[in-house]
């Protein structure tokens, strides 16, 4: 019998969500986009303002070259085409945190267009998401509604953020599920972090996202009417807000209603969105070219200089790491969760004999211990040299996996690096020739086939015998001695 949940799922399957995201990212310049005021976060309110960013009459903007360079670098990392000539425009609206009465942005002719990034596709593989444009603009100030004795009937203004440089990254309506939107944001943020142009800190407002969403009956070409969800402050909440909106759109349409194009706010406590302003009340921004700024020219020579600053980007890095160290895609995703982690891993991988073993150690033995102590890999008590050393010890059979785990526990307990712990705690080695010979004899007797192969010229079997003897000695036989005695016995 069909339950109401089954029917709901069937109705849901009849509609396809369409999502496009607008992401604002602060650029890490020292000074603002049109004046020399500091961009520092957390300074006392209104400490970093001047006639230009306050919009006092007669003050003239001077464009920050570093902001242009950062914006262009980010746009290149997002596979955009850079417009050699772009135009600043005034976006006019009244709001208390916008003293000039307009925001300097870019409109018809943005800095960059026609980009894309890849996100993992639901059925495996990758899907390209188009990036319509990347443009430069200035941020507005902040209204402070809380934290003052008279906050119940006063709002204060902090204009430090006025004029902090931003890029806006607008996606094509190519996303088809909240999950894809989440992936897109994760990949986008990662790429921006790799370029170093922003810290993408959502708590401090360095990365903000508006989500546009509509639904259409499966198979229909035209998009449905969209709503826009503003200023949601985590990727998880964006996913949640989109889920909620999809259900709401479908419910409205199924009951014969029509979606009103409007801006909505997400209440994360309730998990619901609320209408804020409809299209009828929407602003007419009366965009026009900014008369106080020349067209922005990023010529071919400057573009080449900026392109040369592009680092190896996450997707390329993952592909290379899979090749170079024979890792799986899953391994590589885990090991590149942050740029720092990838750097640390590669340091260890390059210092060790078998990078795959290093990957297994980091994923299986290191990350969990770090997480339990709330540490980043950069704060690991076991250095990457120590990880490499421990991997080599396991590789040569000098210690077993079990002993390694034990040594790692001790390193974390005492906050000491692996080499020091190993020196103190290393298993007592068996150096008694007679005892090792006895173990070798037993291994030889138990593996006649392998002995035959070895003697027939398959010298790569040596590793097998070393492994067997080390195992028989519980990892305690001296590896050099094992090798020497094996050579003698096998020849
Ligand atoms: P607006 O004129 O309302 O600003 P835009 O066409 O500039 O709309 O698009 C803004 C964002 O909304 C873009 O990210 C775009 O991909 C997305 N978008 C546009 N139309 C739709 C739609 N019907 N459904 C979902 N997203 C949409
Ligand atoms: Zn200023
Ligand atoms: Mg628009």
Oligomeric status: single chain
Distance between the termini: 74 Å
Radius of gyration using CA atoms only: 30 Å
Number of domains: 3
* Strand line-up across the major sheet: 2-6-7-10-1-11-12-13-14
Category by helix and strand content: alpha+beta
Shape: elongated
Listed once per kind, the bound small molecules are: adenosine-5'-diphosphate, zinc ion, magnesium ion
Share in β-strands? 15-25%
Discrete helix count: 17
Mean pLDDT: 93
- Biggest beta sheet summary: 9 strands, mixed
Give the proportion of residues in helices: 40-55%
Unreliable spans are none
Number of strands: 16
Report on this model:
The chain has 491 residues and is an alpha+beta fold. The chain folds into three domains: 295 residues, no CATH class; 112 residues, no CATH class; 58 residues, Arc Repressor Mutant, subunit A (Orthogonal Bundle), CATH 1.10.10.410. It is 41% helix and 19% strand. The protein has 17 helices and 16 strands. It has a nine-stranded mixed beta sheet with strand order 2-6-7-10-1-11-12-13-14. Zinc ion binds next to helix 2.
């Amino acid at each position: 019998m069909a339950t109401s949940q089954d029917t709901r799922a069937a109705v849901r399957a009849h509609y396809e969500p369409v999502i496009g995201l607008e992401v604002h990212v602060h650029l890490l310049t020292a000074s603002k986009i049109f004046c020399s005021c500091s961009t520092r976060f957390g300074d006392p309110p209104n400490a970093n303002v001047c006639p230009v960013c306050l919009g006092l009459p007669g003050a003239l903007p001077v464009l920050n070259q570093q902001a242009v360079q950062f914006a262009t670098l980010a746009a290149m990392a997002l596979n955009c085409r850079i417009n050699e000539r772009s135009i600043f425009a005034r976006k006019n609206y009244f709001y208390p945190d916008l003293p000039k009465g307009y925001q300097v942005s870019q409109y018809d002719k943005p800095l960059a267009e026609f980009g894309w990034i890849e996100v993992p596709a639901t059925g495996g593989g990758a899907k390209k998401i188009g990036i319509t444009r990347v443009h430069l603009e200035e941020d507005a100030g902040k209204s402070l509604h809380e934290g003052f004795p008279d906050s119940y009937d006063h709002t204060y203004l902090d204009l430090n953020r006025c004029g902090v440089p931003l890029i806006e990254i607008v996606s094509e309506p190519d996303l088809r599920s909240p999950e894809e939107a989440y992936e897109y944001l994760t990949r986008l943020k990662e790429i921006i972090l790799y370029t170093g142009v922003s810290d993408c800190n959502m708590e401090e407002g360095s990365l903000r996202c508006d989500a546009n969403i509509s639904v259409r009956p499966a198979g229909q070409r035209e998009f449905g009417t969209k709503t826009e969800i503003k200023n949601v402050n985590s990727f998880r909440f964006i996913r949640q807000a989109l889920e909620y909106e999809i259900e709401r759109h479908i419910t409205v349409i199924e009951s014969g209603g029509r979606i009103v194009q409007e801006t909505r706010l997400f209440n994360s406590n309730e998990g619901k969105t609320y209408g804020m302003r409809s299209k009828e009340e929407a602003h007419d921004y009366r965009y026009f070219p900014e008369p106080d700024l020349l067209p922005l020219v990023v010529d071919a020579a400057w573009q080449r200089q900026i392109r040369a600053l592009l680092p190896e980007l996450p997707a390329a890095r993952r592909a290379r790491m899979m090749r170079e160290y024979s890792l799986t895609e899953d391994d590589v995703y885990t090991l590149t969760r942050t740029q720092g982690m990838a750097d640390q891993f590669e340091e260890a991988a390059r210092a060790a004999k078998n990078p795959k073993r290093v990957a297994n150690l980091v994923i299986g033995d290191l990350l969990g211990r770090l997480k339990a102590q709330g540490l980043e890999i950069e704060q690991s008590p076991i250095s990457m040299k120590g990880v490499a050393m421990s991997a080599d010890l396991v590789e040569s059979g000098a210690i077993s996996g079990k002993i390694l785990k034990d040594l790692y526990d001790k390193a974390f307990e005492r906050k000491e690096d692996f080499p020091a712990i190993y020196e103190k705690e290393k298993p007592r080695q068996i150096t008694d020739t007679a005892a090792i010979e006895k173990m070798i004899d037993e291994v030889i007797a138990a593996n006649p086939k392998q002995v035959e192969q070895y003697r027939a010229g398959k010298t790569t079997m040596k590793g097998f015998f070393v492994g067997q003897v080390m195992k028989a000695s519980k990892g305690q036989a001296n590896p050099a001695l094992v090798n020497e005695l094996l050579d003698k016995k096998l020849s």
